[in-house]
Amino acid sequence: MLRSYPGDLPMLEVDRVTKRYGERFAASDVSFTVRRGEVMGFLGPNGAGKTTTLRMILGLTRPDSGQVRVEGGALDRRTLGYLPEERGLYPDVRAEDMLAYLATLRGRTWADARAAAREWLERLSLADRARDRVETLSKGNQQKLQVAGALLHAPELVILDEPFSGLDPLNQELFLEIIAEQRARGAAVLLSAHQLDLAERLCDRFFLISRGRELLAGTLAELRRAAVAGADRVVAFEVAGAPDAAGWAALVREQGATLLALRDQGATSRAELALPPTVALSRLLAAVAARHDVRELESRPLRLHEIYVRALGDDRAAEAVA
After folding, report:
1. How high is the pLDDT of residue 321?
2. Domain ranges in the chain?
3. Which of 2, 110, 176, 301 has the smallest C-beta neighbourhood within 10 Å, fewest atoms?
4. Could you tell me the pTM of the whole model?
């Protein structure tokens, strides 16, 4: 069971933190919160400032300005579960001993640590590898072991840096279930991952960082509205003939849509349009059908991947202009 706290303090509060190396800002005025019972997706491209921000949260790097607060105070490492992106296991130690040792570092007695290690090895289908040395395990099984090490002491704040790395689809599904369980028991989870389809299924809110600063933040619905001119869905048309870039550009302007992609598929072409809620699909379909022989139509919500790519593309274009 997690402790209860008075008031409505977030479990983790990152308040205007800034870190500069020479002339480069690795993080600039970054602010977000993570509450108990919430999974926050911490997203961004390589070199965006995610690792620097995580290191400041963990106290491994001091911010030049700003603060990191946990329940309004300082970080208590016994209530923290941290999965680093890099391997942090001793290769010549047996799997069960490795987990038990990690549990003792979090204040567990040796007997309790052993019990927790065996429970997690069973949960992760590694019970038969308990006496095997870590170096003999596959990359995926080492990742499972490392995630267990971050969670076996039931932490209140969980920070996971690329937890799906090296996992096959079945184990990705298992990890989605395990992370959802952490949320259900009331832990606050900060998740950094490049697998945007998995993050979309799991996270309650998102924080997208680029060039060391906030680019987008909010729920998926809020990101959809912010990223592509208020759009919240994608309509894809497959039409006969080669792509007509000028014609599609004129059509989307008339209809209040945004052209996301236009691809040549040989005998057909495919146009993907982002639509705000105010654009009626029936009206758009009629306008497209008046100009093209429509072979196929698909309508779906705007995906996190599309929001991410569009937002970063716009940001890089703005950087190039600057």
Report:
1. 63
2. 12-224, 229-301
3. 110
4. 0.88
